Amino acid sequence: MGLRVLAAMSGGVDSAVAAARIAEAGHDVTGVHLALSANPQSHRTGARGCCTIEDSRDARRAADVIGIPFYIWDMAERFQRDVVEDFVAEYAAGRTPNPCLRCNEKIKFEAVLDRALALGFDAVATGHHARLTDGVLSRSVDQGKDQSYVLGVLTRQQLSHAIFPLGDSTKAEVREEAARRGLTVADKPDSHDICFIADGDTRGFLAKRLGQEPGSIVDQEGEVVGSHHGAYAFTIGQRKGLHIDRPTADGRPRYVLSIEPVSNTVTVGPREALQVTEITCVRPVWNGPEATGELSVQLRAHGEVYGCRFETRDGEVVITLDQPATGVAAGQAAVLYSGDTVIGSATIATAA
């Protein structure tokens, strides 16, 4: 007997093929498009953004081709509070958030899953590229499209009600299948960057919400080498757009080393000063099997993977890297893997 499955349909090719596969497998599938913007645009800007009127229409057309019921759920208020406002607050506090990760945690697998279970559905299916076997999350076979990192915050309970049908396919195979099924989104570009910042100008977006707050850019000795209009506009490891007045004596580039929101000061220095080997993380979520064998950690959504070991201390997770990492930013997630399997995640607090 099939499951009652709610298929989250963004209007893109991945979620459309995911819904089609679940329906073809004999499950009772209902498609739902999440309206996350209070003022959706009528057209996308290239491959940027989501939540446009066009996206909802594309999702509806895909559901019609598949032959499943389709609804639109208004999640704009919840998305604004739990994702957009959280994003702004994290930057204001000198941290670098990942809104896609927060959206998976708070919207797709908290708000949506809670409503789906209340309505009698057994599971929520999405088009994420990740494998899920008996509730255990692993990387996609398409390493270049793998999204297990942004799903690493989900709890065991949430994963037990999730379905990711695309984990055993490459993106190219998904597009080919969409074309065979007659889905018009087969060639639709992937959305990228931050969906609620359609023009890609994160600094401008934050400036409108936080206002300009001039401050100093200093070197490691505390000497002022430039100025800025808001420390929130910077992230650890940033090299471009620093507008530093005075070059280094040896001509080497400077990178953002730290952001101090209270004094509104940005400290810059050489790339080697960014290197860290010990990372302390808070709010751990243990959602996989016991850690065994080769352990590794991913520190950004599309970042490198580092061999590591870890221990828990007073509810925090202390990760020691086998090789130094650069650009490690507070507020990002550290997702721990055993081979390709996710064993847990935590939020980066400090690094040294």
Number of domains: 3
Class computed from helices, strands and strand pairing: alpha/beta
Q: Give Rg in angstroms.
A: 21 Å
> What is the number of E strands?
17
Low-confidence stretches: none
Shape: globular
CATH class bucket of the largest domain: Alpha Beta
CATH homologous superfamily title of the largest domain: HUPs
Give the termini separation. 53 Å
Do you know the CATH topology of the largest domain? Rossmann fold
Helix content class: 25-40%
What's the order of the H and E elements? Answer: EHEHEHHEEEHHEHHEEEEEEEEEE
- The proportion of strand residues reads 25-35%
Please tally the helical runs, counting DSSP H or I stretches of 4 or more residues: 8
- The CATH architecture of the largest domain: 3-Layer(aba) Sandwich
How are strands sequenced across the largest beta sheet?
12-15-14-13-16-17
> What does the average pLDDT come to?
91
Q: How many strands, what sense, and barrel or not for the largest sheet?
A: 6 strands, antiparallel, barrel
Describe this structure in words.
- With 352 residues, the chain is α/β, with parallel strands linked by helices.
- The chain folds into 3 domains: 4-187, HUPs (Rossmann fold); 212-270, SH3 type barrels, CATH 2.30.30; 275-351, Translation factors (Elongation Factor Tu (Ef-tu), domain 3, Beta Barrel).
- It has helices at 13-24, 53-66, 76-92, 99-118, 148-151, 156-159, 171-180, 202-210, and strands at 4-8, 28-35, 70-74, 123-125, 130-133, 136-139, 162-163, 215-218, 224-228, 255-260, 265-269, 276-285, 295-298, 305-313, 316-325, 333-338, 341-351.
- The strands form 4 sheets. The protein has a 6-stranded antiparallel β-barrel. A 5-stranded parallel beta sheet has the order 3-2-1-4-7, sandwiched between helices.
- Strand 5 and strand 6 form a beta hairpin.
- Helix 1 runs parallel beside helix 2 (53-66) and helix 3 packs antiparallel against helix 4.
- It starts with a strand and ends with a strand.
- Catalyzes the 2-thiolation of uridine at the wobble position (U34) of tRNA, leading to the formation of s(2)U34.
- It catalyses: S-sulfanyl-L-cysteinyl-[protein] + uridine(34) in tRNA + AH2 + ATP = 2-thiouridine(34) in tRNA + L-cysteinyl-[protein] + A + AMP + diphosphate + H(+).
- Residues 145-147 are annotated as: Interaction with tRNA.
- Residues 204-269 form the tRNA-specific 2-thiouridylase MnmA-like central domain.
- The record marks 128, 332 as: Interaction with tRNA.
